[in-house]
Structures are given as C-alpha cells and as structure tokens.
Prior knowledge:
The structure holds two protein chains of two kinds.
Chain A: H1 2-24, E1 45-46, E2 54-55, E3 65-70, H2 75-90, E4 95-100, H3 104-113, E5 121-125, H4 129-134, E6 141-145, E7 151-156, H5 161-177
Parallel strand pairs in A: 3-4, 4-5
Antiparallel strand pairs in A: 1-2, 3-6, 6-7
Chain B: H1 2-30, H2 33-37, H3 39-62, H4 69-74, H5 81-86, H6 92-112, H7 119-143, H8 167-196, H9 201-232, H10 243-268, H11 272-295, H12 308-332, H13 347-377, H14 387-407, H15 418-443, H16 448-472, H17 479-485, H18 488-513, E1 515-521, E2 526-529, E3 532-543, E4 547-558, E5 561-566, E6 569-573, E7 578-582, E8 584-586, E9 591-600, E10 606-614, H19 617-634, H20 637-640
Helix pairs in contact in B: 1-3, 1-7, 3-6, 6-7, 6-8, 7-8, 7-12, 8-9, 8-11, 9-10, 9-19, 10-11, 10-13, 11-12, 13-14, 14-16, 15-16, 16-18, 18-19
Amino acid sequence: MKRLLILGPLILFVILAGFLAVGLHKDPSEVPSPLVGKPAPQFSLPRLDDAQQSFSPKEMLGQVWLFNVWASWCAACREEHPVLLELAKTNAVPLYGMDYKDTQEAAQKWLQNGGGNPYIHSVMDETGRVGIDFGVYGVPETYLIDKKGIIRYKQTGAITTKLLSDTILPLVKRLQAE
Amino acid sequence: MIPEIGHFALILALLVAVVQGVFPIVGAAKGNVAWMALAKPAARTQFLLVAAAFLSLAYTFAIKDYSVLYVASNSNSKLPLQYRVAALWGGHEGSLLLWAFILNVWTVAVTFFSKHLPQVTRARILGVMGLISVGFLLFLLTVSNPFERLIPAAIDGRDLNPLLQDPGMVFHPPMLYMGYVGFSVAFAFAIAALLGGELDAAWARWSRPWTTLAWVFLTIGIMAGSNWAYYELGWGGWWFWDAVENASFMPWLVGTALIHSLAVTEKRGSFKAWTVLLAIGAFSLSLLGTFLVRSGVLTSVHAFATDPERGLFILAFLVIVIGGSLALFAWRASSVGKGGAFDVLSRESFLLGNNVLLVVAAGSVLLGTLYPLFLDTLGLGKISVGPPYFDSVFAPLMAPAVFLMGVGPIARWKKAELPELALRLRWAFFISLATAALLPLWLGHWTPMIGLGLFLAAWVLLVSLQTLRERLTVSHQSLPERIRSVPLAWWGMWFAHLGIGIFILGVTIVKGFETETAVRMKTGDVAHLSGFAFTFDGVKSIEGPNYIAAQGTINVTKNGKAIATLNPSKRIYTVQNMPMSEAGIAASLTGDVYASLGEKLQDGAWSVRIYYKPMVDWIWGGCALMALGGLLALSDRRYRAAKRKAVYQPVPGAVAA
C-alpha cells in the first residue's frame, strides 16, 4: 500500500506526459470553422498589383480554388511562402491571395524579397473588413473553395508540404471531379 | 559584434553548467572533495556568463540593432527606452533568457548564503541547479536563440505587442519568474536531501527561507499581473482563469502548502515525505507552466510562440526533470522515518488538512486547464473550460481550507481539545454567521456565494483578532514588551492570514455588488450608475511616441459633489495598426469608478462602458499583505543571526498560546 502511494505521483505524471506528447501534435487553434460547408463570403476588393482593378470570388464560380490570407508582417507566412511558390509551379489549383491589414508598398516589397509571387492575383484588405466576414483570427489562413463557391476546407496557420500532399491536394482532386 | 559576444557567452555558460551539474554530484556520491569544491566557482562563473548574455541582448535592444531577428520582431525605433528594454522578455526567446538568468541569480545567491551547509549538501544543491540550467541553456541555444541575425537587416522593428507596452510589463514578468524559478531552490534542496538520504529538521530549516522568498515574489508577480489585466484589458476583470494565469497559480497553491508543510517538518519532524513531494511538485508545476505556454498545446492570450519542435524539447526536459525526481522520490522516500505522532485534533492535522485541500485545489485547476487537451487527445471533441468550472470547483475547495486556516494557529501542536477550541472561537463563529446573514441584506441582496464569502472573510478577520489577543495576553510583561517578544515570524503568519481575509472580502464584495453599463454618449450627455453621475466632456486627440490616441474626459459626481475626472482613451499603435483601450480609473478604498472608451459612432458620439467596482482594490491589498507577511517571516531574527548553531531550537511560536 505504501509503495503504491509513493509511486502514485510518478504514475500520474507518466499519464500526464503521455497526453502532453500526443497533444503536441494537435493544434488547439484548429477549431472547426463554422464557415466550412457554407458559401464563401462575397466581396470585391482592389488588386494588389493594380488598385484600379478588382477581384471578386464570383469570378471563380465553376472552379476549385485556394484562397490564402497573408500579410507582409506575418512571420509564419515566410515559412509558408516557399510551399506556395512550389504549389504555384505545379498549376494543380488556382491560388488567390488576400493581403490582410497591410500596405500595398510593404506587401509588394515582401513578395519581391520573398522569392516571387505565387498568387494569380492578390487583393488588398487594408482595413480587415473582409477578414471579419471570413472569421480570420490568425494569419496565414487558407480556404479551399469548390465549384459552387462553397468553403470545403480551412487551414489556420502555415501550409506545410506534408499538409499539401496529404490533405489539400487529394481534396482538390476530389472536388474537381465533382 | 555584441550579439555574437552574448551568443558566445551562452555557449560557454552551457559548458560551465555541465561542469557544475556533473562533478559536484558525482563528487558528493564518491566523497571526492575536489570535485565537490567545483560547485561554487562554477556556479559563479556561469552567473557572470549568463549575465553577460543578458546584458548583450538588453544593449542590442537599447541601440536598436534590427539586424538581430528577435530585436526586429519585438521592438521599434519609436518605442520608449524602458519598453525597449522590457521588450527583451516580450517574446519567446528573450523570456527564456530571462528564465535562465533568474535561475542563475538564485544559484549565485545560494553560493553566498550556504556557508553553514555541509559541503556535500551544498555540492548536491548547486549541482541540481546546474543541471536545470543545462536544460534551459540547451533549449536557448538549439531552438530558441535570441541572438539569431536577420540578414539583410530590417529597416525598423515590428514593434512590441501594444498590450505589453505598459509599466506592468516592466515588473510583472521578472517578479513572476523570480517566484517560479525560486522554487528551484527548494526543489534542489529536496533532491539533495533525497540523494543524501538525510531528510531531517535541518533540511527543512534551510529550505524554509528560500521557499518563503520565492513565494513572496510569486505572490507579488501574480498580483501585478492581475492588476495589469484589470486596467489594461479594459474589461474590468482581474482574473480570467486563462491557461497562463493558471500556470502561475498552481505553483502558488502548492508553494503555499509547501511553506506550511516545511514548518511542520522543521518543528515537529512530521510530514517529511509529503514535504519533499510538495517541493518537487511546486517546481514541477512551474516547469509545466513553461511548457504549457511555450509549446502551443493550449491556446491562451499569453502564448506568443507555438512551435512543436520547441514543445517536444520542453516535454523531453519535463520528463527528465519531473519524471526523474519523482522516480528518485519513489525509490528513496520509503526510507524516510516517521515523524512525531500527533492526534487527529491538533495543529498538525489542521495543517495537513489544509495542505491536502490546497493540493487538491491545484489539481482541480490543473484538470480544468488540461481538460480540453485530454478530450482533444482522446478524440472526444473540442471544448473550452471557462470561469464557471473554476468558480464552482474552486470555491467549495477553498472554503474549508480558509476555515481551517483560522483554527490552525490557535490550536495546540500534537493534541488539541475540541471543547476548548470551540469555547475560544465561539464568538468569532457566531459574529461571522451574523455578518454573513445580515450584511448582504443591508448592502442590497443576498446570495449563497455572497453569504459564504462574507462568512469566511469575517471568520478570518475575527479569528486573527482573537489569535492576536491571546498572543498578547500570555505573559506578565507590559504590553510593549509583549509586543516586542512576539517573533517577526509570528507577525508574518498573522499578516499573511489577515491578507487572505482582506482578499476574500474584496472578491466577495466586487463579485456580488459590481455594476456596469454600456452607453452611447455625446458631449454633455450624463449616465447614471450606482448613485454616480458620469458627464461626458468630449474626446480630443493626443499623440504619443508610437501611437495616436483619442482621449475622452468624463467627470464623475455623486450627490452633486465632484468625485473624479476619468480619462479613458483609445490608442492606435501605428506600427502594428493595433487598437488598444486604456481604461480611466479613479480608485479608492470603497471602490473604483472605471470607464473605457469603445467605438466611435456617428455624429460624434462614442460608445462608453462604465463600471463601479466596490472594494476591488482590497483584492490586491490582500495580496500585498500576504507578501508583507512573507517578508516579515524572512526578517525573523533566527535568519539574521550570523552564526547559528545547528541544533534544533523551537521558536516561541511553536508553543500554542
């Protein structure tokens, strides 16, 4: 009995450590988005490369596409950027970006310094208004939108090569076949 | 160049820490005096090296060197100097460097105040602290290097998170860390005692002042953090049961239990194994707190860097330190002898009861904090555990603890008599009951929680008075002599307990009787709340060093008499384009009037939130009294005596009045 009492704290800790180890590989911020399964919010925003022109999700009806929210001030976007550049080269899925709470000048400079522009177009959401509609609470965030304009998948945080090949691209294939 | 010197100093510090961690402990086991003697010079050298690294980073912040990634990410050229320096611990890497630095401050303090310890014990203590340092320095150098260069350099920095640009940021983290890390000393003493197999009264006596000091720092740190949240977040709240607040609160609860358990071990020789377990527990919870904040397994307003790689490192470190020490405990604790016997009704059992309640309370906080993680891991869905859980679990656990706290100091060691105790405490009990029943009715309304809170507050205050009265009527001396004859340690206990009463009073009144309203105000509009009239006098713009602000003016009157002018403001920090509200508060002993500015509406109107927080400052006043109690206990003459004999001397407080 006494042995058991003395071993108790160690046993409890081992169980706790097990949970922590598994928990490490889970992302607590990966909250199931209420927007998944709903139509993507509509907007029309000026384009980053040419503020005279605008872009709206309506133009993408009939196509499966990725919508990536980024910013020049976002550290995790730097991590994600090379992955997106690789993705753009494969032409597997059209990639559009939204530059969130940022200035045009900083954003363009960031794209140049970061090794290029993976986006077909990026729009500017300087005030963060459209970000609110999408429920953006951390940058980067990425949405996969289907042919009918419905959000089918959302990723909070940087996209990794593994996530792309294991989850996003297979889902893109399936949606394109739909 | 300076950052490279800092980086290099950290590498050297790691090497020295390895020497400090390995040779003295092996030397102590083998009886090698020369190896044991390495502990002191190694500890001091390591301190100098880590201090050099710390100062290098501070200097890099001060001169605005944005070719260092960490500086560029957490500072800005327009940031005032005091915040540029405090920005050092505004991010992940720097706060770890602060951790390592403070660990070294404690270690070097041990080298200076441990002359009376046997060399073997001292070698083991410093060795254990060296090993902890190895872990943190490795962590810094491998995955959290604050000196990493950014090439090409940034033109300007990303600025410190505006939430952190506050005097609270300058004091709160260092105080908190002094507390957290301070428990490493008690931990090292416990491990040294386990390694040596000598768990005796002397070990408890040496540990006590270190534990008390760490506890004082932690108390002040938590108090400062709570106060900061109160005026900076603009919601009028002072405790949110956020994961990181919990991470600092759990070691506090266990540390409080440890302080009391150490007292019993020193005076009565009882609870030895339990005390060792608490010493391990307090520090383990500090480490666990670091893990929870840094690894990203939980979401929190405090979590600034989440990175699985770092999380894995800390987890491995955690398993080695906590798992290792608990295994050592399981191996050695059974050889610990039994202490003095005591009756079911005695000061020992009251203290043990309190101890268990404090630990269970800490356990319930831990459970609530990790519950979302457990469910997620088991695939049972995502939930958040919020204040309702903590309020409903914590209060019922603490109520009996606070009740026992009143009885403990008045009960005899070894064996107390229930009829006698009841006789001495009957007035306190009945007056507390009456207060709990009647005072709320006079104040406005009665709920079970208000009744319970007021009962406990009155109980603590009245029993404190009773304890003081009995203490001062023992002998036949004159009153001033009697007051002088009471040891400072006793006053420390008295003030700390009184602080708990004051704290409970503040919490109960503010939770039970606070009022708030959200109004739309134009210049000249008047709002009414709890008998106060708030007149909105418009908003003007103000320019700060790195922000622009709209500052409102609200004149507060009561019965036509001017009470205060509040200046809540809304700042936009230009670099991060982040809005922050600064509350306008007029504090007084009876209550705070509190206003915060919301959004600008059409035609010059603003949304304004107004609160009345009765007796809210008593919450922090109570904490300050607890910290004062700890400081008084530390100033007791037995700690000041230059050369104390190693024999065990009961202090006068040990004999019940």
